[in-house]
Amino acid sequence: MEMQHKEEEMMVANGGSRLRRMDAATRFLALALTLAAAVVLGVNKQTTTILVKINPSIPPVDMRITAKWIQMSAFVYFVIINAIACSYTTISLMFTLATRGRKKNVSVMVTVLDLVMVALLFSAIGASGAVGLIGYTGNSHVQWREVCNVFDKFCHQAAVAMGLSFIGSMAYLLLVIFGIYKKL
Amino acid sequence: MEMQHKEEEMMVANGGSRLRRMDAATRFLALALTLAAAVVLGVNKQTTTILVKINPSIPPVDMRITAKWIQMSAFVYFVIINAIACSYTTISLMFTLATRGRKKNVSVMVTVLDLVMVALLFSAIGASGAVGLIGYTGNSHVQWREVCNVFDKFCHQAAVAMGLSFIGSMAYLLLVIFGIYKKL
């Protein structure tokens, strides 16, 4: 009877340690992806030359224009949130590795903060995705013209950043699910 | 010793039943708020008359223009996600009331689905918020002009819908936190 009890305890301990390893690996992935997303959009810049007709009587002139992430509030929000998520993950990774899931309160607090990161990251992806979509297709109803035909490289790089952040957010979603299952 | 054990069990049971009542109340609030958000934006429509100069040689003419939620992808996404969240909450509310938290697997599944709702709702709020902000302020870098000076009522109603949905999302966030604490 006692043997069986000990075996069960060992199985639970093994399951817990496997979950902890998975948690640490996923956390590291989330860190890397949100860092990459913030950097990819943060360094995003494209300068291009367009022909502008100032007056119908004179020929059009060349004009150099630059697209930067800082020119659009949604992209600024995206970079800030990914930077926050990345910084938080570094701290939470150290915490979870140091406590090894022994402190239940710390573990619950980390899961709640992971949840906050899910909310923030998804809102940032939604914001930049909506603006990016208008950049690609434009919107004739409000006469917002597409800009990705001019800033193709910029738009492509922004899409890559959003993709990276999306996978990072899925990693956070997984971390919260681990947190829920950990308490089972 | 046995008395003390029974008292502890009763305290845990009381705590669990209080948490279940809070869960049901919050779930009902989330249902009402996401339903209201979907309806408030879904019925949003404003028709206004603007002066348009077609040709410099003739005087400007009146033109009637209409703003609807369906004209903007971010608003369509917002209405769909809020409708999904509201429908899901109705089902999950029935499930949680029927099982009374007795079935652990159902309870965990509901918490994971609540988490998915958090992600979806925050992405929808982010998307419509980003578009709404450009509607209010415009963006000179991409020459997207503000439209809320013309469609003031439409923009105001969209902001109300976003506010309702945001409080609804916070209710979902709370539901996931309850789900995490329930397992403690």
Topology (elements, then pairings):
2 copies of one chain form a homodimer.
Chain A: H1 2-42, E1 45-52, E2 61-68, H2 73-99, H3 104-137, H4 152-182
Helix pairs in contact in A: 1-2, 1-4, 2-3, 3-4
Shape of chain A: elongated
Largest sheet of chain A: 2 strands, antiparallel
Task: Count helical runs of chain A.
Answer: 4
**Strand fraction of chain A:** 5-15%
Sheet with the most strands: spatial strand order of chain A: 1-2
Major interchain interface with per-chain residue totals: A-B, 44 and 44 residues
Residue-averaged pLDDT of chain A, rounded?
Answer: 87
Oligomer: homodimer
From the helix content, strand content and strand pairing of chain A, which structural class follows?
A: mainly alpha
Helix content range of chain A: over 70%
Distance between the terminal alpha carbons of chain A, to the nearest Å?
A: 23 Å
Low-confidence stretches of chain A: none
> How many strands in all of chain A?
2
Following the backbone from N to C, one meets helices and strands of chain A in this order, namely: HEEHHH
- Return Rg of chain A in Å: 23 Å
Number of domains of chain A: 1
Organism (chains A, B): Helianthus annuus (Common sunflower)
InterPro entries (chains A, B): CASP/CASPL, CASP_dom, CASPL
Main location (chains A, B): membrane
GO cellular component, one term (chains A, B): plasma membrane
